[in-house]
Design goal:
With 665 residues, the protein is an alpha+beta fold. The chain contains 17 helices and 40 strands.
Length: 665
Amino acid sequence: MFDKILIANRGEIACRVIKTAQKMGIKTVAVYSDADKHALHVKMADEAVHIGPPPSNQSYIVIDKIMDAVRQTGAQAVHPGYGFLSENSKFAEALAAEGVAFIGPPTGAIEAMGDKITSKKLAQEANVSTVPGYMGLIEDADEAVKISNEIGYPVMIKASAGGGGKGMRIAWNDTEAREGFQASKNEAASSFGDDRIFIEKFVTQPRHIEIQVLCDNHGNGVWVNERECSIQRRNQKVIEEAPSPFLDAATRKAMGEEALALAKAVNYSSAGTVEFIVDGDRNFYFLEMNTRLQVEHPVTELITGIDLVEHMIRVAYGEKLSLTQDDIGINGWAIESRLYAEDPYRGFLPSIGRLEKYRPPAEIATDDDIVRNDTGVYEGGEISMYYDPMIAKLCTWGKTRSAAIESMRNALDAFEVEGIGHNLPFLSAVMDHPRFNSGDITTAFIEEEYPDGFEGVTLPDAQLERIAAAAAAMYRVAEIRRARVSGRMDNHERVVPDDWVVQIDGRDFPVHINADKTGSNVLLNGKTLRCESNWTPGDSLAVIDMEGGPLTLKVGKLPGGFKIRNRGAEMKVFVRSPRAAELSKHMIEKLPPDTSKLLLCPMPGLVVKVDIEVGDEVQEGQSLCTIEAMKMENILRAERKGVVTKINAGAGDSLAVDEIIMEFE
């Protein structure tokens, strides 16, 4: 077996590979840019080599710099992770020329299947059903518009070398096709060093289901079930699960056999994924093959017990696959939620900065429940603007889909992140969404269920009552502590009352508390709710044992109450005496400032271009400027008709969140 491998990647996937290498007794080498000097993967590895400035096109995707690191450390093999150089055949060739093993497929397979245009042609030759599209290269935006009209809108504009949602746009008309072509081309060049673009028909109401394959260099191969990846936003997967709640055994087998046949047709070895679009009648169409490890591979590992990274390493070393198709089963259900550094209340725009608090739920593994968190960050670390905004992949496993979902709900409630915007509230909202729970999902789920963006969660009355009871019990504990503070006035005894009014988002919940040594009985709306907890004032997480299951609350301080997050809802909860609650209704609410005549930068980023000038009259929906952040270009559009009176930023300027870009009369 290899003595030392280098991981040509960063973040959570680098940490993930290091964990398996350590388990196998293999030493590891990390590479890092200036921005990642103190990153977790650097701390975890046995050795680390600096490879350049923060931009990936000056560090992580520069083959010569990775090769220098290989030579410096004497690494015998390289695992590329996903993204960056993972599907770059020139990188694999460079390693082969040095006698270094590439922990991935052969160069021929990368070239054949890693390129989206070539892979579609090969699939057609193998009589695999593919989505209609234009397989040739597209020179400019005019040609893109012409081809889009020939195919018929809507169309998907995609980077040939793309992946992970980068370089992808859906166009519904000529204007969007023209803008989408240029934006996809720019993103592809920045992220992959390859700006080739192709266009295909966008199938409405599709499910995105992919098959995991695993092959060796001796002609052996297996398909390792499927993953449902239909919960997507901007073509970026957000929640994945295995198995799919939609497939039947016959369709699963047909897709698996077709995926494996396609892999064997190009003499594939290592782990790879064949992606399909599946319609409502379970007809499936080949999309592409990712010749690398997928981001969402943990859900496959959780339902099969197979360590895909270990098998990739063993195959690269030349070992025969130790698995046969009969060894592959499905045990239980697994779900993965991707935690992103993005603000769901600002249209999911990237959020960067320091992780002032980062405390994932405890990882557990029992016969009934598994919680796994793949991450590449730590408390106090920085989320950089230069890379993908994913912070962690939270995974849960249960014996059934409903059990896995419930485990995920509890794990998300217990996940503490502060200092940056994050999508924890949105992930929790999806877990409670009736349509998701029924399994009736498509890739349009987020667009259809949140057409105006994510505006928070309204909890049902039963859950609000549980929160109100818990808040009252917690506040009573804090009041008792305050009543016992030393240095009190003589002849004065502070008495903590039993009657309170809990106010949540304008609603009043009168409560009466009967407390004992182990907890509190809270009388609310004619019901008695028993609350027991080890929570003490100052704790940022409270787990309240109540009838109906434990209640997990993220708790922050407020004068006279708490900031509470639960099940995706973020609430200000005040606990007041009946008289104080009555008087609070006369308090004047502070209104936010009027920014309707300003264009504010929605996220920290770089101005790519400004499309208008002072004095221009703009129309609703017109493009105003383009901001680049975390390798993605974002077009900012006018919300209403107006005249530009001032422009404060130009191309090349670096802006902070909420910085004023332009003003209108």
